[in-house]
């Protein structure tokens, strides 16, 4: 093998990893877009349409769920492809914290295929990724929500708007209670002028939906800027 092919192979190893991203078992299919082995794929807990809250998408025997009955959301519907644990959580962590950006593609496709959301997807006119704050964007070098939105945009042919911005750097939400999250995100987002969101049906894209505080605040900013309605689509959600 000459130096050139070695280099090419090295590059393609970087671009197309030949082992499962989660358990590192070798994959049989070497070309194409297989990043997870069948065993790991099978462990992902999918969210099935029938037993979810019609509003927030949470697994619930009653719809709307208790918390949506108590509190109205600014978004119309939030849907996710799977539960945020195990393999799916690992994949999202690999994407965000280990910079395995190639996982945006299978996760984005997974999101489209399994989000039990096709009807609402077809109504969307504009995709808006949840923005990262500037400090975190500098550290990470990319916004995972934007990478996911790019995959969705390519697949379903809906343009992306990056007009939603953060007004300040806010502490990470991960350790905060629901009440603290609400306070943390209040007024956190604004939409740029000449934003193209007016009278549009927006599909907000993010990696994880936890309490919905971030999605709600984004939806509020988009509606204030004149959007007609906001739906939310995430790869995963907490139970
Ligand atoms: Zn595996
Ligand atoms: Zn609900």
From TrEMBL:
InterPro entries: ComF/GntX_DNA_util-trans, DZR_2, PRTase-like, PRTase_dom. Gene3D superfamilies: 3.40.50.2020. Belongs to the ComF/GntX family. The lineage of its organism: Bacteria. It comes from the Bacteria. This is ComF family protein. Residues 12-62 form the Double zinc ribbon domain.
């Amino acid at each position: 093998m000459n130096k050139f092919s070695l280099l090419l192979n090295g590059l393609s190893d970087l671009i197309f990893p030949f082992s499962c991203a989660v358990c590192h078992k070798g994959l049989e299919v070497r070309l194409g877009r297989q990043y997870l082995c069948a065993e790991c794929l099978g462990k992902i807990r999918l969210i099935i349409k029938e037993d979810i809250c019609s509003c927030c998408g949470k697994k619930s025997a009653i719809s709307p769920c208790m918390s949506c009955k108590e509190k109205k959301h600014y978004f119309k519907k939030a849907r996710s492809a799977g539960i945020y644990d195990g393999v799916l959580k690992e994949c999202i962590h690999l994407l965000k914290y280990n910079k395995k950006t190639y996982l945006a593609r299978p996760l984005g496709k997974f999101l489209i295929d399994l989000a039990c959301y096709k009807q609402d997807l077809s109504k969307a006119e504009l995709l808006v990724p949840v923005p990262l704050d500037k400090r975190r964007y500098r550290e990470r070098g990319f916004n995972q929500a934007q990478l996911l939105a790019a995959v969705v945009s390519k697949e379903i042919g809906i343009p992306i708007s990056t007009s939603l911005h953060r007004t300040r750097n806010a502490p990470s939400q991960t350790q905060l209670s629901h009440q603290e999250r609400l306070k943390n995100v209040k007024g956190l987002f604004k939409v740029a002028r000449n934003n193209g969101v007016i009278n549009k049906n927006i599909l907000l894209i993010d990696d994880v939906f936890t309490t919905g505080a971030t999605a709600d605040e984004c939806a509020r900013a988009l509606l204030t800027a004149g959007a007609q309605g906001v739906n939310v689509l995430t790869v995963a959600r907490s139970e």
